[in-house]
Amino acid sequence: MCAERLGQFMTLALVLATFDPARGTDATNPPEGPQDRGSQQKGRLSLQNTAEIQHCLVNAGDVGCGVFECFENNSCEIRGLHGICMTFLHNAGKFDAQGKSFIKDALRCKAHALRHRFGCISRKCPAIRDMVFQLQRECYLKHDLCAAAQENTRVIVEMIHFKDLLLHEPYVDLVNLLLTCGEEVKEAITHSVQAQCEQNWGSLCSILSFCTSAIQRPPTVPPERQPRVDRARLSRAHHGEAGLHLSEPSSREEFA
């Protein structure tokens, strides 16, 4: 039941997140040309878009977020690199010396890798997306994201916004890495994201909270040690109240 509810929750989340009241729906956007429609249907970056990105990369400076801005408007819909860069730069003053060094080195690493790898891969969107995420992870790990996060947890948490997690895949990738940086960082991020979710959608977020707590709650008595009468009651409850049955372990991994 939890798996089903969580699936419905995330579907609704994505639907709501893709609607921008200031811009309206996709139907209000200018019609695309035949070349653009064909490129999107095939899952490839259009030739024109490829040339524009390459030209932008050549002219982007080595300092700042210019390289990442080159990827903001592309037919593969890879968004968020520029936003992450700007967020790090705007908050750099709040980090300690180690954190500042991480920001400088990680952003430089990502920009250098994007500039040199983009021209060496196919125009297929999955290949470009995989390249972006791979180099992002490599640079974060190379320059010790976790060490910076553990010493600057409060600032890191302030940088994570719930809406960005629904709209931009690079943000999700960054947060997934941060969740591996120890219990203190993980708990701080989880609490913040859940609180932001509740502010936006209220009781909808309680569905996710219920499923997570139910799955993580350890059993007080191992099944093999339960009295015979308890097993009988559990059997009747299972058949009579199937709606309360939790997902099997394979399904639980979806929430990890």
Automatic annotation (TrEMBL):
Entry annotated with the keyword DNA damage: no
A Gene Ontology biological process term: intracellular calcium ion homeostasis
Record keywords: Disulfide bond, Hormone, Secreted, Signal
InterPro entries per record: Stanniocalcin (IPR004978)
GO molecular function, one term: hormone activity
Region ranges (Disordered): 23-44, 218-256
Record's compositionally biased regions (Basic and acidic residues): 225-242
UniProt GO cellular component terms: extracellular space
Compartment list: Secreted
Leader sequence residues: 1-24
Family: Belongs to the stanniocalcin family.
Described function: Has an anti-hypocalcemic action on calcium and phosphate homeostasis.
Entries under PANTHER family matching the protein: STANNIOCALCIN, STANNIOCALCIN-2
Complex and partners: Homodimer; disulfide-linked.
Official protein name in the record: Stanniocalcin-2
Organism (species): Carlito syrichta
